[in-house]
From TrEMBL:
Keywords: Oxidoreductase, Peroxidase. Signal peptide: none annotated. Gene3D superfamilies: AhpD-like. It comes from the Bacteria. Residues 27-91 form the Carboxymuconolactone decarboxylase-like domain. GO terms for molecular function: peroxiredoxin activity. This is Alkylhydroperoxidase AhpD family core domain-containing protein. Pfam families: CMD (PF02627).
Length: 159
């Protein structure tokens, strides 16, 4: 088993926070939850899965809605066009491998649904969660150390 590592602190950690603040102020909550849950599962970041399950529950999301967001490609009927675009963009940006990863059709559809500023705000949210996924994975943040969690938040057997 991997050993724990010191968590990022101080200025290094604080340098990442403006992106999160911007996201929380400019991307509607429902899309932030979709993006955070999906990217965290794709990256297998257990600390972030735990955190964002807790946050979505705190905002009234059911366990079923959370699990569907995490595995949205098997539950496409559960999401409207805008939610689907946000999830598709999350998948594309999270699995990025050159310019073909985010096809013009996907970006154009996102802009059509969210407007240019809204698409850029959504992108910042996707970038923010991917940054924190990588931070938590690298420093091996312990999901059990996250306050306010439940057994549901810590159960990864659905993946």
């Amino acid at each position: 088993m991997a050993h724990s590592r010191p968590q990022l602190r101080g200025e290094g950690f604080r340098s990442l926070l403006p992106m999160v603040k911007y996201s929380s102020q400019n991307t509607p909550e429902q899309y932030r939850h979709l993006v955070s849950l999906r990217a965290s599962v794709l990256n297998d970041c257990r600390a972030c899965i735990t955190t964002h399950r807790r946050d979505a529950r705190d905002d009234g999301w059911s366990h079923e809605r959370i699990l569907r967001a995490e595995d949205w490609t098997n539950h496409t009927d559960a999401f409207d066009d805008s939610e689907t675009a946000a999830l598709r963009l999350t998948d594309a940006v999270t699995h990025i491998d050159g310019e073909a990863s985010v096809p013009d059709e996907l970006w154009d559809r996102t802009v059509e649904l969210f407007g240019e500023d809204g698409a850029h705000n959504l992108l910042v949210s996707i970038l923010a969660i991917n940054t924190f996924n990588r931070l938590s994975i690298t420093t091996r943040t312990d999901p059990h150390s996250i306050k306010g969690t439940t057994d549901f938040d810590l159960d990864y057997s659905a993946h």
